[in-house]
Design brief:
The protein folds into 2 domains: 285 residues, 3-Layer(aba) Sandwich (Beta-lactamase); 99 residues. It is 32% helix and 14% strand. The chain contains 14 helices and 13 strands. Helix 2 packs antiparallel against helix 14. The longest helix is centred in the last third of the chain and has 17 residues.
């Protein structure tokens, strides 16, 4: 889709982080090039109201070709699933197939959920995009460094707050993982540690991808509401959307294959990682929840994606729910020259063009990878269309099997179901 930075072992320890480049580069022609004029959806999709089609016939050869253990996918038109399917197995070496009821770790795709939760509190008048760390934490966090006091919620959601990059906090994350205390205690410990020291770069001066930005946002929401982030996300977002499979950390039961296992993607490629094992624990520390430790089925994830697809102001069928229209616009709009906002990568693609005056083919994409799991959602509001793909193997680089599998699946599904076709190479 776009070139990702190479990740080291260090990055795998940071709360479900996806590795995002400093600026998105053009993906391959097969992904971005579309016909200049819109065409009708393929005959196979006669109506979004039809029963969802089975995508197994598309996903199975991709799994075989890329040798990932398994994957699942959904195609949306508005709030309707028009196609869904799975392929492969829960754990390499087993014969237990993946099902649509299986849960996948969403990693940094969860950042968009935390940003949505913040927007809900903004709509309630409990904070604003310009609420500062000083407004929330003065008198609460001892030794709050003065340089942090004017940092805003908006800057944190844009990764422009001055927070250190993930790798700089490696040993702090590892020590907290093995320390005593509750998830909440550990979350506040890392927030207090970061905010007691001066920012490593001037807040607002540049983009630096830092998962702790969203951990700080989660702590802000906890301070304002008096509730743990985990309770807030379930009560205010998941339950209203009908998400019933949501949980935190690697899914599954110790010693069983009752859910998909994550699989190594950067080295020891394809080796399974037990849900209760060391590597699952280190790569997805629960105190990093606001940055991306949530898991759920792909169909439940599609409920959240549909919320944003239909809420976007560019959607001709816009129907804002849970949030005000202005909040959807703020979550999906980046400043000129920027590409990241509130957990979304903001791009333009010809296959996403609605061909109305003012349409530009704008895409909002939510992605995640922690080295053991990979997911992507490509949302095209102008054509009321979205594609979601998840894989139980990680590897946030273009030459890794999971990225190739998801990229090939997204391309095939846009070609098969999108109203604008993708040009051949």
């Amino acid at each position: 889709m776009f070139r990702r930075l190479n990740v080291s072992l260090v990055a795998l320890f940071i709360s479900g982080c996806a590795v995002i480049p400093s600026a998105p580069l053009p993906p391959s022609t097969a992904v971005v090039a579309g016909n200049s004029s819109a065409s009708a959806p393929t005959a196979a999709v006669s109506s979004p109201a039809d029963a969802p089609q089975d995508l197994g016939i598309i996903l199975t050869p991709i799994v075989a070709r890329t040798k990932v253990p398994g994957m699942a996918a959904v195609v949306l038109y508005g709030d309707k699933i028009v196609a869904q399917g799975v392929a492969g197995v829960r754990k390499r070496g087993s014969d237990v197939p993946i099902t649509l009821d299986d849960q996948f770790l969403l990693c940094s795709a969860g950042k968009a959920m935390t940003a949505t939760l913040a927007a809900m509190l903004i709509d309630e008048g409990r904070l604003s995009w310009n609420t500062t760390l000083g407004d929330v934490f003065a008198g609460t966090i001892k030794n709050l460094h003065p340089d942090w006091k004017t940092v805003t919620l908006a800057q944190l959601l844009e990764h422009r707050a001055g927070v250190p990059a993930d790798q700089a906090l490696f040993w702090s994350i590892v020590r907290l993982n093995f320390s005593g205390g509750t998830v909440d205690d550990k979350r506040w410990a890392i927030v207090a540690k970061v905010l007691s020291k001066p920012p490593p770069y001037p807040p607002g001066s540049r983009y630096v991808y830092a998962s702790v930005d969203y951990v700080i946002v989660g702590a802000m929401l906890e301070k304002i509401t008096g509730q743990p982030w985990e309770d807030l996300i379930q009560q205010k977002l998941w339950q209203p959307l009908g998400i019933t499979s949501g949980g935190f950390g690697a899914p599954g039961t110790a010693g069983k294959i009752d859910q998909p296992w994550g699989h190594w993607g950067m080295f020891l490629t394809g080796r399974p990682a037990a849900p209760d094992g060391l590597w699952s624990h280190l790569s997805t520390p629960l105190f990093g929840g606001p940055a991306g430790t949530g898991h759920m089925t792909i169909t439940d994830w599609s409920r959240f994606i549909s919320l944003h697809l239909r809420g976007d102001p560019a959607n001709p069928h816009q129907a804002a729910t849970l949030l005000k229209p202005a909040s959807f616009a703020a979550l999906h709009r980046a400043e000129p020259g920027r590409f990241y906002q509130a957990g979304w990568i903001l791009l333009h693609r010809s296959w996403a063009n609605g061909h109305r005056p003012g349409d530009s083919g704008r895409v909002i994409s939510s992605q995640g990878d922690n080295g053991f799991w990979h997911c992507e959602a490509w949302v095209a509001p102008e054509i009321d269309f979205a594609v979601l793909v998840v894989c139980n193997q990680g590897g946030p680089a273009d030459d890794k099997p999971a990225t190739m599998a998801d990229r090939d699946a997204v391309t095939a599904l846009i070609q098969a179901f999108g109203p604008n076709k993708i040009a051949s190479r």
